[in-house]
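To: structure subgroup
Subject: Chain for Friday's discussion

All,

I'm putting the inputs and outputs inline so they're searchable in the archive.
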Amino acid sequence: VKLVESGGGLVQPGGSLRLSCVVSGLTFSIRTMNWVRQAPGKGVELVARINSYGTVASYADSVKGRFTISRDNANDTLYLEMNSLKTEDTAIYYCQDEYDNRGRGTQVTVSS
């Protein structure tokens, strides 16, 4: 099982980023997928979840209205569109499947 995140970087407050996660070694299209994050000195936070069909999504209150999770089952890829970024969104972002398989993460830093 391999999950590889990309798309992180340094962005100013109010900016946007799009994260991607390419998955291999499992049947991506039948799994519920999550984006989670871990900020320095804090625990892991579930940011967003999407069902296997891509029809039902849920979000942490802290990102609701700013982040959008989506998936492309034809290409085994999970996405997280992040808008109106805040300094408190700074964290390592991981994609994770329903069995807690997780990638190495991508760093997102929001700073002026």
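Points worth raising on Friday:
The chain has no helices and ten strands.
The two ends are 37 Å apart (CA to CA).

D.
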